[in-house]
Amino acid sequence: MWLDRLAVQSNSSPSSSQPGSRPYSPLPRRTSSSPYVTSQRPGLTPRGSQLSLISNDSSISLLASRRVNGSSGLKQSQTTYDGPDSVEILGQILGTTSFAESAANRTTDTIGERDLELDFDFDGLSLRQLASSNKADTEDADSYQRQTTEEFETSKAQFEDLHRSIAACDGVLSSVETNLTSFRNDLAAVSADIESLQSRSTALNVRLENRKSVEKAFGPVVEELSVSPHVVSKISEGHIDETWVKMLADVDKRAASYKKSIASQGESKAWADLGPLLEKLTMKAVERIRDFIVAQIKALRSPHINAQIIQQHNFLKFKELYAFLHKHHSKLAEEISQAYMNTMRWYYANQFTRYQKALDKLKLHIIDKNDVLGHEEPTRRATVLSATKSAGPPHDAFNLGRRIDLLKTSNAAALSSYLAEEDQTTHYLEFPFRNFNLALIDNATAEYTFLATYFSPPLSLQAVSRHFNYIFEPTFALGKTLTRTLTAESYDALGLLLCIRLNQHLAFELQRRKVPAVDGYINMTTMLLWPRLQVVMDHHCESVRQLTNSLPTKPRAADQNKLSAAPHLITQRFGQILQGVLALSTEAGDDEPVVTSLRRLRSEAEAFLTRLSQSFGDKRKRERFLYNNYSLISTIISDVTGKLAVEQQDHFEGLRSAFQEGV
């Protein structure tokens, strides 16, 4: 049998097998939990004396069968295998007896006494029957052995493939061992490099902290004692912009530190070297600032230039320049500020002179002494200030109408010169007054804000106010002249009161804008308007008084028949002018001059109506006449609000009720 031969060959020549071959074992290989062992740092010996990538119970490591030239000197485990024989295990798998037992049985040829003592049990069979049954068993065994041999021949290729796979795995594991050994050496080198870098980093950190400490201590001192060449070049030759202003502030700071140090500690070697440089640099900056501001002042004299644009973009944008100039050369700063004031004085006087001439071309209604209240048939002429202009449309000197809209309008812009020259509409005197003063207030606000921002804090607010008054002195004179021209010959009481209310609104607006420098002009205008209104109201009272005195004491009978109980024309005019004054005085106090004038005019009107009612011989007609006149006045002023209006409404309502019984 081939199995017997295989067993004899394996037992008789054990040295014929290759020393590096690995006997096949059907048992599962026991491996360690980790596929490889990481390298250790040089100088540190891992626990145990062996390093194995794969731990098993075989007698020789898989990696020990092959060694590559130049491979690492890792120790391989050389243990003796003392487990069961692989040939016996193979025999058990194939279902045959052990090769060693078969060989031992064949070597025993004699029968001993012990063999004779055996009691054979043939299960009640005779020898013939036993022989025949043994033959059948032998045939079955032979057939089984033939079947096993065929299966082995069939599985031979599989075992050869398995052997080749094991050999390939052995080669792969050997390569892995080589790579891991190289990786361990590389890790050791990297670890050494990291330790070196850590030590260098620690040293650099210490040096950095030391330098920071030194820089923190000496940095401010060195900064004060040095000026960079870039700053010197920029201040001397660079374009004046935001960067130039920042460098100028830096130079100013160093100059202040230099003066402070010299005053407190005396002049040191470092300050002695820096002092002349700072002085020259400061003088150069003063020179360049002077040239820059003078160039901007010259630009203000250019024709058709907007001064506010230059102020915002060229002056206020670099307002630190004047502060520096005033600090280091105050006399030159005063001369430059005087040049600016002279330029702006000329600028505003020129601009508002042109604007006044444009407003003079507007057509205005002329309300003269013929338009007073006591004229029964006044000459109502619609004329204008200029004799060369054509007459305007008819107007009513006693009716306020839509003239109050000028006081309530939300349009805060003044009429431009071009539109004023092209306007062909006839206006009342408050129209040019409002536009001129509105333009004046807007420009005055802009100029005062600029002066307070640009020249302060080098100059105090009192000095700024003096500069402002010097600049606007001729412009305020133009406004005063315009107001006098409009009101000197006018008997328009409603127009004068409208101008007063407009002037009061402008005063409130100036308070809101916080421009106190224009209060003098506002007060001057008020002093021109109130006395003129008093004069006009006195003329109205005087005209009514003269009309009352002209009435006959005892009218003739023929004249009594012509009298009518309808309201008189003077009553209608008085009601209209009273309604206009009350509408313009809704927020007025009791201390205004117009209140006294209005009461005087009311007394004169009542005296006229009482004197005229005496012309009626019948008392009933007389009371009806008075009732109709007072009812008309009450109706006209009934829709007006305000404290003064309520007082007048109550007064005339009482008069109407007093004469209602005779109706």
Automatic annotation (TrEMBL):
GO molecular function terms noted in the UniProt entry: syntaxin binding
GO CC annotation terms, alphabetical: cytosol; GARP complex
Region (Disordered): 1-51, 132-152
GO biological process, any: protein transport
Pfam families noted in UniProt: Vps52_C (PF20655), Vps52_CC (PF04129)
Keyword Transport: yes
Localization per record: Golgi apparatus, trans-Golgi network
Bias (Low complexity) ranges: 10-24
Main location: Golgi
Keywords: Golgi apparatus, Protein transport, Transport
Superkingdom, natural source: Eukaryota
All copies of domain Vps52 C-terminal, residue ranges: 342-660
Biased composition (Polar residues): 30-42
Vps52 coiled-coil domain sequence ranges: 158-325
Family: Belongs to the VPS52 family.
PANTHER family in UniProt: SUPPRESSOR OF ACTIN MUTATIONS 2/VACUOLAR PROTEIN SORTING 52 (PTHR14190), VACUOLAR PROTEIN SORTING-ASSOCIATED PROTEIN 52 HOMOLOG (PTHR14190:SF7)
Stated name of the protein: Vacuolar protein sorting-associated protein 52
Gene name tied to this protein: vps52
